[in-house]
Amino acid sequence: MDEDGVRTQDTQDTVVVFDTTLRDGEQSPGATLNVEEKLEIARQLSRLGVDICEAGFPIASPGDFEAVRRIAEEVGPLTEGRQTGQPMVIAGLARANREDIDRAYEAVKVAPRHRIHTFLATSDIHLKHKLKIDREECIQQIIDSVSYARTLCDDAEFSPEDAGRSDPEFLTVALGEAIKAGATTLNIPDTVGYTTPEEFGWLMDYLIENTPGADQVVWSVHCHDDLGLATANTLAGVKAGARQVEVTINGIGERAGNTSLEEIVMAIHTRPQVFDLHTNIDTGQITRTSRMVSAYTGMVVQPNKAIVGANAFAHEAGIHQDGMLKSHLTYEIMRPETVGLSASRLVLGKHSGRHAFRVRLQEMGYGDLTDREINLAFDRFKRLADKKKIVADADIEAIIADEIYQPPEIWHLNHIQVSCGDHSIPTATVSLTGPDGEIRQDAGVGSGPVDAVYK
Q1: Is residue 18 within 8 Å of 52, Cβ to Cβ?
Q2: Which pick of 282, 309, 373, 392 has the fewest CB atoms within 10 Å?
Q3: Dmax over Cα atoms in the chain, in whole Å?
Q4: How far apart are CA 74 and CA 357, in angstroms?
């Protein structure tokens, strides 16, 4: 950190986590958040240990401006529970014009640590079809916007939108001018999720190697998941030298979403021999954060989602369950407690084996069953599992009661007939055989069919 608290590239072993759940994540269709929901999520991001929170796009609407301002005011100063002991940086996004930059600064300036993040497209596709400017005009806008942002704020980030499809040589020129204008962080976005890990890793390596003044800034990556490669591309960027990652909780965001915070953090945490890096994230808060974002945005996390999906630490296959019961290392590369879960889950279904079924019986208090009784119950369990996706504990209790603890029959139900209808009196006829072998039968009426049976 420099004297202003801005992280510099010198911290080579730390990957800075820039969370854009409240900006890019909220741009997911249907995921709009109100001010109070944004505040709650921002507080949780602070507890999680996020270094920089991109709280919104202040120029987008009065509501977004107010949300960013309140986050800067109420969450910006918080330090409790944070490993760094420093408050989260609050960032606001702005297009490369003075009106946007002024609005972003007004929203974030109250935070003890704040950042202006400005962007401009650099790909020929965007320059021609969207912005309708040439490369020279593009560079001049970058210089003007970044230098103006630095007159307001010591921490200025610049992103060349659609960098993944931009001319690398032109990018080195544009980014070199951004550095001269005062940018402290350069973020390289794969805006449309177009590149592969090899391409994106090469691009980051090329830019860091060939951009004038590259050693004066923090290099960042921001990848989208259109081809399902956001996490792989981001990690390739980190391997190439990027030390900031732009991510969202649960990977939410435009179209197919952004790089997932939990996947990046746990990849770095789980594979130190590959990355030899760390983050400031408290991984024990990951599950709680994921569930909060899912609840507030209404975006359900897919069951097989890495790290935070319902099945991420669940096992049904008999071979897997047997291995897990002997050692979790057989089928788990990380412990569920690491991400804030209490334990792994052995799901009982048609693929489950006898070992897992026996252990579940013991956990439910049926440890005194004989091998014969367990075999009887297991056979019944397998038949039920073929009909149901998952066999719950209540199902197992019913199996045990029916197969093992069924008391001897005293009364036998021979026959029951019920008659009821819209304009008739509910009537029931019941026939029972008693313990003495004598048949008893009777009829009765009631307020409903069940009442008539008991009468």
Answers
A1: yes
A2: 392
A3: 104
A4: 51
SS (H, E, C) 112-126: CCEEEEEEEECCHHH
- What pairing do the DSSP bridges indicate for beta strands 89-95 and 218-223? unpaired
| Cα 378 to Cα 50, 325, 349, distances in angstroms | 48, 18, 11
Residue listed under structure tokens 């019986």: 361
Q: What is the pLDDT of residues 396-448, one digit of tens each?
A: 888 887 777 666 778 889 999 999 888 889 999 999 998 888 999 999 999 89
* Residue 389: Cβ-neighbour burial (10 angstroms; 0-12, 13-18, 19+): exposed
Q: Where are the beta strands (DSSP E) in 396-455?
A: 412-419, 427-433, 439-445
pTM of the predicted model as reported, rounded to 2 decimal places: 0.78
What long-range pairs does 130-133 form, CB within 8 A, spacing at least 24?
none
Which residue is listed with tokens 């004297």? 3
Phi and psi at 346, nearest 5°, equal -95, 110
52 forms bridges with which residues in the sheet?
A: 18, 89
DSSP states of 347-369 as a string?
--STT--HHHHHHHHHHTT-TT-
